[in-house]
Amino acid sequence: MVGHGHRQKQAHDEHHDWITIRRGVCNICGTTITFLPVFSLPYSHYSLLARSEALRRYFVAGCSWEAAAPPVKDPHRMPDPSTLRRWFRDLDSSHPPFSFLRRTIEAIGSLDSERTGSPPRRYATVLAHRFPASPTLLAPADLENLSTHHPCLGMLRGVLYRWIWKGHPPMRQDVEQLKHRISLLDYLQQRNWNAHRISAREEFVGLCPLHPDTRPSFYVNARKNLFYCHGCERGGDLIRFVELAEHLSFRESIAYLQQDLAVAGESHLLDKTAAFYQAQLHRHPEAAEYLRQRGLFHPELIEELGLGYAPGGNLRRHLADLGYGFDLLLRTGLVSNQGRDAFCRRVIFPCRQHGRVVNLYGRSIGAAFPHRLLPRSKGGLFAWDSVRTFSTVILVEGLFDLAVLWQFGFRNTTCAIGTHLTAAQLSQLADQPERCIYIAFDQDANQSGQQASRLLAQLLENTGLKARILRLPPGQDPNSYFATGATASDFRARLEQAQSL
Question: Which pLDDT belongs to residue 378?
Answer without folding.
Answer: 86
